Amino acid sequence: MTPRRAVATILIYGLSITGAIGVGAAQSPAAPPKALTIDQVNRWETELSNWGRWGKDDERGALNLVTPQKTREAARLVRDGVTVTLARFADVEQAADNYNFGATKHELLRGPNNGPFRALDTISYGIHDGTNSHLDALCHYALTRDGKRVIYNGHPQDLDADGCKSSGIDRMGPGIVTRGVLVDIPLMKGVPYLEPGTAIYVSDLEAWEKFSGVKISSGDALFIRTGRWARRAKLGAWNVGREAAGLHGSVMPWLK
Prior knowledge:
- By secondary structure, the protein is of the alpha/beta class.
- It has helices at 3-6, 38-47, 68-76, 185-189, 202-212, 228-235, 240-243, 252-255, and strands at residues 105-110, 119-124, 143-145, 148-150, 159-160, 163-164, 180-184, 199-200, 221-225, 246-247.
- The strands form five sheets. The chain has a two-stranded antiparallel ribbon with strand order 1-2. Strands 3-4 form a two-stranded antiparallel ribbon. A two-stranded antiparallel sheet has the order 5-6.
């Protein structure tokens, strides 16, 4: 199977904690086609907003684009039935790219010797360390509107230690089954990984469509590979939270 065929493989994407972003030749980050200003970003908060698109009480957001029809179309694309995991266990040793939001801890508890033997795991780690990926709830970020902190659809950001009172992850519906599109930028550029700070522009995404022969469409789950883990394996950890390669802000209208 050639790389161009491989990238068109269909994935069934569920709500799980996975290491979805992958990680050499040296590259200089390309200059943005047009520098973004804070005024432009502020305008996009309104122009690109989905607030009200699916009703004022909606708490799923763009997941509404994964319709039953989209799921059926994705299921019909499955040919081999091969499962490809994106999972990566969180690091238990502190490094430059982890332990920023809490230490990773793993403990195995053994059962008593005088009864049925059992092994129990306890695991804790910082979700936003960048050593694992996850799906943020819509209550994760808030905006200030008319002096109030509000989240998606204008709901108040009402949260405490027990979670969000609206737009929490439990309100976003069941698992996601849709077409997954792997956008492997290092593969297209012929390098093992992108250097920290490398920006991915609309031109890169459209070049990938031509390279792979796959047209990205509404309701797809995009997997953007930067080569992060390949670089880490070769050169070691770095401050990914501050210096990761990834999508440039100018991609937002294209994603919309």
